[in-house]
Amino acid sequence: MRAGPRPGARTDGGERSGGTGSIGAGAELFGDLARAVAALAEVGSLRSFALPYPVQAQRALDRVVMRCLGIGESPPRSLPELWEWCRRKTAADPLFDVPASLVTPDATLVHPVGLMPTRTCLEAASQGPSGGAPAEARALLAELERRCGSVERFRRCRRFLARRPVVRQEDRRTRGWSTSVWSEVKDLYQPLPESLITGGVFLRCPSCGLPASTSFREAPPSGRSRAGEEVWCEGEDCPRDDELELIRDPARALVLRRSLRVFLALPYRTEEAALAELDRAGVGYEPVPGALSAYRVRHAGAATCEVRVYDRTQPGLLAARLSDGPPLAERTVVVVPRRLTEREGYRDRFLAALPPLLRERLVLTTPAELVDHLRAPRATADAPGPRHGGVPVPTTGEENDDT
After folding, report:
1. What SS3 state is found at 294?
2. 28, 352, 368, 402 from 342: Cα distances, Å
3. What confidence tens digit (pLDDT) does each residue in 100-120 have?
4. Do 273 and 261 meet the contact criterion of CB atoms below 8 Å apart?
5. Dihedral sign for Cα atoms in the order 270, 272, 278, 281
6. H helices present in 223-362, as ranges
7. Of 4, 12, 57, 282, which has the highest C-beta tally within 10 A?
8. Model confidence pLDDT, tens digit, residues 60-116
9. 103 contacts 31 by C-beta, under 8 angstroms
10. CB 226 within 8 A of CB 216
């Protein structure tokens, strides 16, 4: 899987190695196929796959066929069959053999219930030279910022996008609706695609607000799932105490571009929680230009410190992206939702995927632990608590629950 050269990486076409171990031809194919699936998902009707197919997808199918023939496996015969095939083939399948340090072995590229690209797929696709959906989200926001002309106007527009991944026509009559903000952001929304309509109804997750679907392929009565029915939402691991929201007239609703839904709206609650902790502690910060959810912490001292917020399901891919991306600050605190850090092995896989030199400069934490990490004195890389040189942060007795 291509993520750009890492320390120790080969660039001559052979196997490569880095913080995540050896990367072979199968893993490279997994990354290519992820980018193809992401491109196909932008086709209006996934059921018909109307020609012409995206060139990237056709090339990926050709590579899959050659790989299958090379290992004696029966290949998919068409792009629709490839899509179905990607529901079953996992990262650990001998066809791919992606290192478990990079992608969890049971991960697939197409969700078996939602029939849409998984979050793993979108994260893997972003490891390519184009940067995938995160790069698209950054470009869209950069253009929005240019149009806005002021920091405050852009902040309001960005918050609107993050809090409203789906907009219904009746929302425009609700209290707090801003016509001026809508005029700036409306081109970032699009009609609901056929692939997100279930039985003539659009379903929305009550937790993350993103599109949802069910295994029965029909709208559940009143949004309540039935016995034996599986539910998918784009957030994938949301707790759902409430019923799915039914939007019965999809033609009167618009949905935010997928890249902004997954890489801006999904982590936004964690970002708000992290900034609330900084505000509570009296820590000054400013956005990092060109980044999705990154802030430079202002403090006394020579070292620069950044807080970067993510909601990524694959810690190995996150570590690879941080390792191979633009140069990081002297110290970087990576903030993710608490539910991710509570997954078995999540922190360990993130740390193991980092090159040794970055393990002393990066720390993975949650919003509730953020200020403690900024205050903490330097510790060893394997310590469970804060690991980096501290930022002089005013002490308060207040705490805040994590997202």
Report:
1. strand
2. 29, 17, 13, 12
3. 999 999 999 999 999 999 999
4. no
5. negative
6. 258-260, 268-281, 315-324, 338-341, 346-353, 356-359
7. 57
8. 889 999 999 998 889 998 888 899 999 999 999 999 999 999 999 999 999 999 999
9. no
10. yes
User: In whole angstroms, what is the distance from residue 7 CA to residue 52 CA?
Assistant: 40
- The closest alpha carbon to 235, from 166, 322, 291, belongs to 166
The DSSP-derived string for 330-391 is SEEEEE--HHHHTSTTHHHHHHHHS-HHHHTTEEEE-HHHHHHHHHPPP--TT-SS--SPPP
User: Which amino acid is it at 260?
Assistant: L
Q: Which residues, 6+ apart, have CB-to-CB distance to 98 below 8 Å? A: 1, 26, 27, 30, 91, 92, 105
> Cβ neighbours of residue 129 under 8 Å, at least 6 residues apart?
2, 4
Angle, in degrees to the nearest 10, between helices 151-163 and 268-281: 130
Rounded Cα gap, residues 257 and 189, in angstroms: 6
CB 2 within 8 A of CB 129: yes
Q: Map tokens 């790069």 to a residue.
A: 135
Contacts of 366 (CB under 8 A, 6+ apart): 335, 336, 337, 338, 341, 402
pTM of the model: 0.86
**46-60 as b/e, with b when 16 or more CB fall inside 10 Å?**
beebeeebbebbeeb
Q: How would DSSP label each residue in 143-163? A: HHHHHH-SHHHHHHHHHHHHH
